[in-house]
Design goal:
The protein is 38% helix and 16% strand. It is an alpha/beta fold and 546 residues long. The protein has three domains: 161 residues, Thiamin diphosphate (ThDP)-binding fold, Pyr/PP domains (Rossmann fold); 159 residues, 3-Layer(aba) Sandwich (Rossmann fold), CATH 3.40.50.1220; 190 residues, 3-Layer(aba) Sandwich (Rossmann fold). Helix 9 crosses helix 12.
């Protein structure tokens, strides 16, 4: 059969549902082969949008999302989504085209060595030079993409290879069971936990697996050990749990760090150093047990005293069985910290000033969304407020990026979340800067008839960098711009635009949009004036309760 036909069959063999992307001239054989397939082509308006959708598919399903681009500029536009998936541990496959490799009449026109370009930001990148290799290369790429630690893979299909005849052969999809941690590691970890005076549990993004979520909930209930999470570990355990302390939205000096700094042992489940540090280790300070699929990457701020390496859920289950002596523990301080922390975080939740405070926005969104509602964030200073103040009740209900921390991913991520969860309420919260980086995907959302909501936090500036600028003592310079009329902009795509005029008006509009069909865009004026006084001044001057 034709090589491009075999490629599609190999993807079907892996259970692929969607391919996101923008085909080019070099993909036309591949595109023609898709016509008779059950795989749906989701045409986007930029390769970044396709890549972010594919990565988010991987994040939410555990199966690689697939995206397609042509050679040259189409392929180079995949580099940011590739890094996004690779750093965020999201399984994703990129397929790019290329000029004929056996004979070409166009010289070096548009040719960039994409395979070499992708090497630092993927787990696997190959050019297909023989159609008979397609099935095995697709199988291998898929295997590597989902293997812990998950990430991005890339295959380049040249135009002449796509058109050649090859053997019709597929490889069986063979799974594997992750090995369990060594029993001696489990026993040593259990002994360290029993001997601690103030143990504390940290939940990271690597724990965001169904079995691990259940195992951690049982562990917490059985041991009574309080827990906190990283930004990408939010929702792994219901944050309404009585033992939940908070989210490490900052690396140090937050109110939560009063508890972290008092702990003498942290059980760190599913975290690795690619995510922004939730705390800094110091020589002779708090001990750390690293529980993960892979050993800890050691750096200046993270050097655990013990690795428990293997299937995380099984490790947590075994630890639960081995911990029987709790006589050394005194966890009463954590109860006081929890009460103090809640009082600080709720301070501006009822402040109805307008333009809206980010703390108030978080409170309203949490009130309006059902338990399984999904919020996706772009990258901006509001991400800190959502991480600190927004309580997640279920896994994968707050999708933020604390690894690459790229702008432009929030809208495509929300579109994918809605596409595969049509019965769930989905809100994309974007800064005006991040929204404009991939705002053209509004057309894709409208064309797909997605019922979703986009909230644009409008301060006509790059607010995150402004906050940093002020914190470093620099004058305000170089970060302000003018925005389009977002209501008219939304309407030009066939979406419905809204511009609230008060706190109460925003609540009314938000509630209405969540229950109406179509793509709704809210242009919401935001007040970031308290960012510096709280995050830079107050936190540094805080005194932890005794």
């Amino acid at each position: 059969m034709k090589a491009s036909d075999l490629f599609i069959k190999a993807l079907e063999n892996e259970g692929v549902e969607y391919i996101f992307g923008i085909p080019g001239e070099e993909n036309l054989d591949f595109l023609d082969s898709m016509r008779g397939s059950k795989i749906k082509l989701i045409l986007t308006r930029h390769e970044q949008g396709a890549g972010f959708m594919a990565a988010t598919y991987g994040r939410l399903t555990g199966k690689p999302g697939v995206c397609l681009a042509t050679l040259g500029p189409g392929a180079t536009n995949f580099t940011t989504p590739a890094a996004y998936a690779q750093l965020g541990a999201m399984p994703m496959m990129m397929i790019t085209g290329q000029k004929p490799i056996k004979k070409s009449k166009q010289g070096r026109f548009q040719i960039v060595d994409i395979v070499e370009l992708m090497k630092p930001i993927t787990k696997y990148t190959r050019q297909i030079v023989n159609g008979n290799n397609i099935a095995s290369m697709v199988r291998e790429a898929y295997r590597l993409s989902v293997e812990e630690r998950p990430g991005a893979v890339h295959l380049e299909l040249p135009e002449d290879i796509a058109a050649e005849e090859c053997d019709d052969r597929l490889f069986k999809v063979v799974g594997h069971r992750r090995p369990d941690a060594d029993e001696s590691e489990i026993r040593e970890a259990a002994k360290m936990i029993e001997n601690a005076k103030m143990p504390l549990l940290l939940i990271g993004a690597g724990a965001n697996r169904k079995r691990t979520s259940e195992a951690l909930t049982k562990f917490i209930e059985q041991t009574g050990i309080p827990f906190f999470n990283t930004q990408m570990g939010k929702g792994v355990v219901d944050e309404r749990h009585s033992q939940f302390l908070g989210t490490a939205a900052l690396s140090a000096n937050d109110f939560l760090h009063c508890a972290i700094n008092r702990a003498d042992l942290i059980i760190n489940v599913g975290h690795d150093v690619i995510e922004k540090p939730p705390f800094f280790m110091e020589e002779g300070g708090t001990k750390v047990i690293h529980v993960n699929f892979f050993p800890a990457q050691v750096d200046e701020v993270y050097f655990p005293q013990l690795n428990v390496i293997g299937d995380i859920a099984t490790s947590v289950e075994k630890l639960s069985l081995h911990i029987t002596d709790k006589s050394n523990w005194d966890l009463s301080y954590y109860d006081r910290i929890k009460e103090d922390l809640e009082s600080h975080l709720s301070k501006y939740a009822q402040d109805s000033r307008f333009p809206i405070l980010p703390q108030r926005l978080v409170h309203i969104v949490r009130e309006e969304l059902p338990e399984d509602g999904i919020v996706t964030l772009d990258n901006g200073v509001y991400k800190i407020w959502f991480a600190r103040n927004y309580k997640c009740y279920q896994p994968n209900t707050l999708l933020l990026d604390n690894a690459l921390a790229t702008m432009g991913a929030g809208l495509p991520s929300a579109m994918l979340a809605k596409l595969i969860n049509p019965n769930k309420k989905v809100i994309s919260v974007c800064g005006d800067g991040g929204f404009m980086m991939n705002s053209q995907e509004l057309e894709t959302a409208v064309r797909l008839k997605l019922n979703m909501l986009v909230i644009i936090l409008n301060d006509s500036s790059y607010g995150m960098i402004k906050w940093k600028q002020e914190g470093m003592g620099f004058d305000n310079f170089g970060l302000d711009y003018k925005n389009p009329d977002f209501v008219k902009y939304a309407e030009s795509y066939g979406a419905i635009g809204h511009r609230p005029t008060s706190d109460e008006n925003f609540k009314e509009i938000l509630s209405e949009c969540l229950h109406k069909e179509g793509v709704h865009v809210i242009d919401l004026a935001v007040d970031y004036s308290l960012n510096h006084s709280i995050l830079n001044v107050l936190l540094k001057e805080k005194t932890c309760i005794l």
